[in-house]
Specification:
Length: 654
């Protein structure tokens, strides 16, 4: 049976024939198109397959799982499928601290309290260039004049003595982890790729697409740095007012340390006295804070790293206010001096203060290792979780209460005290994942109770075993982004945190060199003269072990008639027993336990088969063994039919 629907479109025409559409409806089966499976779905399918086979294999052999948990070579709690670190919300940290302290210390206000007299404003230039040009602006000169009016002239009108605009000075430190962020952010688009920028060059149609090209951003910084000098001289309202810009003159070019900034006043322009090689304006800002003679400093930056870098610094008599939101009517300001006082007098951190432990440094390191520009965030566990957990167990994590709990978080000096800091970091992660998986850890009242229940002679071994207990509890069998990373992966994460902490400790030093990133959990590769920086997510030993486990669960022989008793059997040829990944029939290449059990149920004589010793590398995990997808059948002849339905379901991996 068929139906035909006809449409007559307009009048007939000799020049343009009428187009008639026919839609034929029949009872024919609709064509099924194969959906393209994403890499994420494939990975989840593989993980599910390995989980099911491991559980079923353990139940069938009655062998406890002793070292399971991970089937993807990278810790998905720290990185995605693109091998890039997870990014998280740094923007909540000021609000989180304000909620904790606002009853006694109102950290955030909608205005700043000090008068402009004897005041300096320091502006992060990499933030203001993201201000999109207004529609009436046609060329780059219009945009430069607008920025001067918005960010320079407005503060001079308020009476500020100094205005400083600082740009990133990229390339002064050679190889750095910044390359990872550039890989994530950079785009190539010929439509928006500019060869040069000057006053009369038209503005791009889409400002954000223009900035995604790194060379464009570098040219813009060079252009604005020079143009600010030319325009700002007309904006002084007082002969004592000063404008300083730094960092943007050589960005993207061969660097020159002889001239990194310009000072403009009513007397003219001159080279600024600070000669530095800081790549990031985040750290450069604090050089200018201590360089300014003003006692009141207003910093504009939406990057929360700024406040955390400055948290442990001693400002002496200077008042520091950070503006992190400049939307009209929604301005927000953080009082950094008040935050320092609040941290020092926090009752939950009193035990640390009694032991002369710098609580501000601890909070700074906590901010770093829970995720920042060069350090991965933990999937599903944001900064709020890490900070709340730290305040809950601060004495256990960083208090050095006994020889078993050595180290504190700010022990980050490589080859000096970083190993002690690693133990403190292990305890932090232990507490965070214990709280996240509390429902699977009924035998322990707290992470402290779990830690002290571990019977291990060495301090390091006790930390590793405690982490393994919580790691098993975090095994959900769905996807591995909630799985606690291995101790080796956590150590590499800690090394990257140590690198950032080492750089932040040198913010008051104008000239210094970055530590060798290859010693801190980063990988450097060179391809046709280009340098590529990436993260080392785990050790080679751990990766090989994971690969071996996956191969054992998903690959094997397919012997149909030989019963796996000759060298044609791939498993026997490789010197191992048949396992869950095999499709063999009537297999006789079994472990000694399985062979004895099979023979006891059979009247067949024992065959002369040499058996190989196989040591299962799997760990015991809490699981419901009554709900297992898959069938295991051992008939009276000792025939083993293992995971038939799983192999059909996941045949892509066979």
């Amino acid at each position: 049976m068929a139906y035909c629907k006809m449409f007559i479109l307009g009048q007939t025409s000799v020049e343009k024939p009428v187009a008639r559409k026919f839609r034929l409806k029949t009872f024919a089966k609709e064509k099924i198109r194969k959906k393209k499976v994403s890499d994420l779905e494939k990975e989840k399918k593989l993980i599910t397959l390995c989980y099911k086979r491991t559980i079923a294999h353990s139940q069938e052999k009655k062998i406890p799982i002793s070292d399971l948990c991970q089937f993807v070579t990278e810790p998905r709690a720290l990185c995605g499928q693109n091998h890039m670190p997870h990014k998280g919300a740094k923007s909540l940290i000021y609000t989180q601290l304000d909620k904790r302290y606002n009853t006694q210390y109102p950290l955030i206000a909608h205005s700043y309290s000090f008068s402009p007299t004897d005041s300096c404003v320091i502006i992060e230039g990499m933030n203001i260039i993201y201000t999109s040009p207004l529609k009436q602006f046609k060329v780059f000169l219009d945009y430069a004049k607008f920025l001067v009016q918005r960010w320079v002239a407005s503060y001079f009108k308020k009476g500020f003595r100094e205005v400083r605009i600082l740009f990133d000075q990229a390339g002064t430190q050679g190889i750095s982890p910044k390359g990872i962020e550039r890989t994530r952010r950079d785009r190539e688009d010929e439509e928006y790729n500019y060869e040069s920028i000057d006053d009369n060059v038209p503005l791009p149609r889409t400002w954000m697409n223009f900035l995604k090209i790194r060379s464009n951003k570098q040219m813009l910084c060079r252009y604005l740095s020079q143009k600010f000098i030319d325009i700002v001289a007309l904006e002084f309202k007082d002969p004592n007012q000063i404008f300083i810009t730094s960092g943007g003159f050589h960005v993207g070019l061969d660097q020159s340390f002889d001239w990194t900034g310009v000072k403009v006043s009513s007397r003219g322009k001159e080279s600024h006295n600070i000669v530095h090689n800081h790549e990031e304006s985040d750290t450069q800002i604090w050089l200018h804070v201590f360089d300014s003679p003003c006692s009141k400093i207003l910093i504009y930056s939406i990057d929360r790293d700024i406040g955390m870098i400055g948290l442990p610094l001693n400002f002496h008599e200077k008042s520091i206010i950070i503006q992190f939101d400049a939307k009209p009517g929604q301005e927000k300001f953080l009082n950094l001096n008040m935050l320092q006082s609040a941290c020092e007098k926090d009752s939950d951190l009193s035990q640390l203060s009694l032991k002369a432990i710098d609580v501000k440094k601890c909070i700074q390191t906590l901010y770093i290792c829970s995720g920042c520009d060069f350090v991965s965030f933990f999937a599903q566990l944001g900064k709020r979780v890490f900070f709340n957990t730290f305040f809950q167990y601060a004495s256990f994590i960083a208090g050095e209460l006994s020889t078993d709990t050595q180290g504190t978080l700010y022990n980050t000096n490589l080859n000096v005290d970083s190993d002690a800091g690693l133990l403190s970091f292990y305890r932090l992660v232990l507490c965070v994942y214990f709280n996240a998986n509390r429902a699977c850890l009924h035998d322990y009242s707290s992470p402290v109770d779990l830690f002290h229940s571990i019977d291990e002679c060495s301090v390091f071994g006790r930390h590793i075993k405690a982490l393994e207990v919580v790691r098993k509890a975090s095994w959900k069998g769905v996807y591995e982004d909630g799985l606690l990373p291995s101790s080796s992966a956590l150590k590499l994460h800690w090394l990257r945190s140590c690198w950032v902490q080492t750089v932040w400790d040198k913010v008051q030093i104008p000239i210094y060199n970055y530590p060798d990133i290859e010693l801190y959990g980063f990988l450097v590769s060179r391809d046709d003269g280009e340098v590529h920086v990436s993260c080392q997510w785990d050790t080679d030993e751990s990766i090989e072990k994971i690969k071996s486990n996956v191969l054992y669960l998903t690959r094997g022989c397919s012997c149909a008639k030989s019963k796996c008793q000759n060298r044609l059997c791939k498993c026997r040829k490789d010197g191992r027993f048949c396992g869950p990944g095999c499709r063999c029939r009537q297999c006789q290449n079994l472990t000694a336990v399985e062979k004895l059990a099979s023979d006891s149920d059979s009247s067949e004589e024992d065959s002369d088969i040499d058996h190989f010793e196989y040591d299962s590398d799997f760990d015991e995990v809490p699981c419901d063994k009554t709900n297992i997808e898959g069938t295991i059948e051992i008939d009276s002849n000792g025939d083993l039919s293992l995971f038939e339905d799983l192999q059909e379901e996941c045949s892509d991996y066979e």
